[in-house]
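Example record

The entry below shows one chain as it appears in the dataset: sequence first, then structure tokens.
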Amino acid sequence: MKKTQNVTIKGTKDGLTLHLDDSCSYEELKKELDRKLSNSSRVQEEQQLLSVKVKAGNRYLTHDQQEELKELIRQKRNLFVEDLETNVITKAEAEQRRQEAEIVSVARVIRSGQILEVVGDLLLIGDVNPGGTVKATGNIFIMGALKGIAHAGYNGNDKAVIAASSMKPSQLRISDCINRAPDHVQEDENRAMECAYISDNQQIVVDRLQVLMRKRPNLTRFEGGR
């Protein structure tokens, strides 16, 4: 029976990709990795630095194990680790992803000086008064008047959106983009619900709510919206 390789080395135009078997023991993996890198002709022949991408599959690697593998690779001539990828995440990472996928519903008025900050999407049933601030790592939906500050995608999510029944903000922020309110806002009690998003030219645009399904087709997990 042919022995399964614990380490497979593939050369690319950008460097090397190391595919690590996820069923053998860690010690066996480390020994074979060391042996194969030492015998690799490309590693020996290259004069310039080679980029290495490591794919660990479904193997869980502790922080110390990841650093040990990186150091083992770095010890070989002309190699540096660009990326180490594993399909396994920690409980803390799983909990963070769960929180970021949630919709947090809050029923209250955000008054001047108050800050409401959530992980995930925010559904606020109430107003944001001038001087009040709402922040979310995801989208912000306000069933009321937005007259203060709203910051969606504050952890770098430039696909996040802001929607409000009455859009009269003092400031809109999505990820790192900022859009300050105009000096004069026309009062219109019949004004339809509006949304804000980052356009292709990296500017915050305020538009009709109906455009969101076209601009952000993956916005919601709910059915419908055609």
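Notes for this example: Residues 222-226 have pLDDT under 50 and may be disordered. The chain has five helices and 15 strands.
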